[in-house]
């Protein structure tokens, strides 16, 4: 009886001693010698580089577990093996050495953000235990080896921002543990690998910015864990798959800049987790149906539909609004009609873009009741009447503190902005919509009346563009209170009087134009005004300066009095350079470009 009673105690004691050994062994594993095979592989890898690895010994060291970036683990009571290699951002240059295949216990390999070139050696894909492979942000080229399909333990594969070409091999059938696949910003062509449908654990699929074509033929019913789908900036065709509605966990969907057509499927209203949707730059139709479906995605925060629905009418009925929406862009669509009243129900809006449409009527005064709105772009429409005085009451622009938002989305937003030569649009990337400079752009409309002196209350405003309208009266001195103003464009109006000298106190002002008005008097001297070219003041024969080079009066060859030709603002076929202010960021979301997921 006594022996049998002590037997369980002895077992427990042995177990505790074993666990203590493992714990202390794991703690001091970096003090132990590496296996000879691991040591040979690491030294061969280091020798293959153009330059060595900083703080790695040149030779005669057997304790590689203490080297920077090397992680070791205890695989048995006596065997310490290299299990991880993290050399991201170490400035390494050279080709990937096949010698890495000698680290046969490797589960984690991160060589991202270096300058590796050449192709992926096939030997590297024999590492059967590999769970994480990150080769992103290098200069790798060639085709992606089909041996990728042999890494059955892989959970994360990241090869983005390289120069890979050819088809993405259709070898994902056995990668049942794969959770993240990012191959964005390469030169892949061909169709989407249908074997990705077998990766039922997949949460992130990011193939943005390649040249993939064909239809989106994945079986989304088997991808119900998908959280992020980024297929933007490719050449995909056909319809938006209705089966996407099966991805109930989907939060981020980017299909922008493809050749998709048809309508937004009715069943997408089931995506109750969807917070970011970018369908910019496709050939979608029926905006009424699209908005009617998407308004039931109750968690939607960002909605980008620009460059679709060409020439359709902005719906005014049948839409309730988007109660949680923070950013909306429906620009560059040549939409007709007026600003719809349902927009006033989008009380959480921070960013609103309706540029380059054919909308008419007066700008509603209720815009001023958007407590969070800090970027409003209504440029290149046919709005008339006075600027609503309520715009000078936008609460988020009255504070000098940049707008904040509780949304912690890590997605990066590429938007379109004009290039410096005014001829093409380029993607401009922002981490988040709150990274945009606070701005009001009402240019290229038919607005009249005066500039409200209360605009001076908008101390947080960075960009104010009222150019190409019919505004009259004087420039209010109170504008000098907009202490964060970086850009002020009042050109091509009917303004009179003098330029307030107090504007020289705007220390952040980098662009200023009052060209082609009816201003008179002395051009102010001092501050940023010493940096502005004569073109900022031309077309005002009554202006003069003792310090700036004399500018000859320029003959007006532009359209005035609100006669902006609507045929020139229909988007398709328009001369893009027609007077759009250089450097002003138009909020055309093309995301996702990247995801610095």
TrEMBL record:
Q: Where in the cell does this protein reside?
A: Cell membrane; Membrane
Which one Pfam family would you cite for this protein? LRR_8
Q: Which InterPro entries match?
A: DNA_repair-toleration, Leu-rich_rpt, Leu-rich_rpt_typical-subtyp, LRR_dom_sf, LRR_N_plant-typ, LRR_R13L4/SHOC2-like
Domain Leucine-rich repeat-containing N-terminal plant-type spans what residues?
36-72
The topology of this chain with respect to the membrane is: Single-pass type I membrane protein
* Family to which the UniProt record says this protein belongs: Belongs to the RLP family.
Q: Write down what this protein is called.
A: (wild Malaysian banana) hypothetical protein
């Amino acid at each position: 009886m006594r022996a049998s009673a002590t037997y369980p105690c002895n077992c427990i004691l042995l177990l505790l001693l074993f666990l203590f050994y493992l714990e202390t062994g794991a703690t001091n594993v970096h003090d132990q010698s590496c296996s000879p095979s691991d040591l040979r592989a690491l030294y061969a890898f280091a020798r293959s580089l153009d330059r060595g690895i900083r703080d790695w010994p040149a030779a005669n060291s057997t304790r590689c577990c203490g080297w920077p970036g090397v992680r070791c683990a205890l695989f048995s009571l006596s065997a310490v093996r290299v299990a991880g290699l993290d050399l991201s951002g170490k400035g390494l240059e050279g080709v990937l050495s096949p010698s890495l295949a000698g680290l046969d216990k490797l589960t984690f390999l991160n060589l991202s953000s270096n300058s590796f070139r050449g192709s992926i050696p096939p030997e590297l894909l024999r590492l059967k235990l590999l769970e994480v492979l990150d080769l992103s942000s290098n200069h790798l080229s060639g085709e992606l080896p089909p041996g990728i399909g042999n890494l059955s333990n892989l959970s994360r594969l990241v090869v983005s921002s390289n120069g890979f070409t050819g088809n993405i091999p259709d070898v994902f059938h056995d990668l049942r543990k794969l959770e993240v696949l990012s191959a964005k910003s390469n030169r892949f062509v061909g169709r989407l690998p249908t074997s990705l449908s077998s990766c039922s654990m997949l949460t992130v699929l990011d193939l943005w910015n390649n040249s993939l074509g064909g239809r989106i033929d994945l079986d989304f019913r088997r991808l119900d864990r998908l959280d992020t789908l980024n297929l933007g900036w490719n050449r995909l065709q056909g319809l938006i798959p209705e089966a996407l509605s099966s991805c109930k966990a989907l939060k981020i969907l980017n299909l922008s800049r493809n050749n998709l057509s048809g309508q937004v499927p009715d069943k997408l209203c089931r995506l109750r987790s969807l917070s970011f949707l970018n369908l910019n730059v496709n050939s979608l139709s029926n905006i009424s149906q699209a908005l009617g479906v998407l308004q039931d995605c109750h968690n939607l925060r960002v909605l980008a539909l620009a460059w679709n629905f060409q020439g359709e009418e902005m719906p005014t009925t049948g839409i309730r609004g988007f109660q949680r929406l923070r950013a909306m862009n429906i620009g560059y669509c040549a939409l007709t009609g007026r600003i719809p009243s349902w927009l006033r129900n989008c009380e959480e809006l921070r960013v609103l873009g309706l540029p380059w449409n054919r909308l008419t009527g007066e700008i509603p005064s209720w815009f001023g009741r958007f407590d969070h709105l800090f970027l409003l772009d209504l440029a290149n429409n046919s709005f008339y009447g006075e600027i609503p005085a309520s715009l000078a009451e936008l609460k988020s622009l009255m504070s000098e503190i940049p707008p904040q938002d509780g949304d912690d989305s890590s997605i990066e937003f590429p938007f379109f902005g004009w290039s410096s030569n005014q001829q093409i649009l380029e993607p401009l990337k922002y981490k988040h919509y709150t990274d945009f400079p606070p701005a009001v752009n009402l240019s290229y409309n038919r607005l009249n009346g005066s500039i409200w002196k209360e605009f001076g209350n908008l101390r947080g405003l960075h960009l104010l563009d009222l150019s190409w309208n019919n505004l009259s009266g004087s420039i209010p001195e109170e504008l000098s209170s907009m202490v964060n103003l970086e850009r002020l464009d009042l050109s091509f109006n009917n303004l009179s009087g003098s330029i307030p000298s107090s504007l020289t106190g705007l220390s952040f002002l980098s662009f200023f134009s009052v060209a082609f008005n009816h201003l008179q008097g002395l051009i102010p001297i001092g501050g940023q005004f010493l940096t502005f070219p004569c073109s900022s003041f031309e077309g005002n024969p009554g202006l003069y300066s003792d310090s700036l080079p004399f500018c000859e009066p320029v003959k007006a060859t532009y359209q005035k009095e609100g006669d902006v030709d609507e045929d020139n603002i229909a988007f398709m076929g328009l001369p893009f350079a027609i007077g759009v202010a250089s450097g002003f960021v138009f909020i055309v979301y093309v995301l996702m470009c990247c995801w610095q997921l």
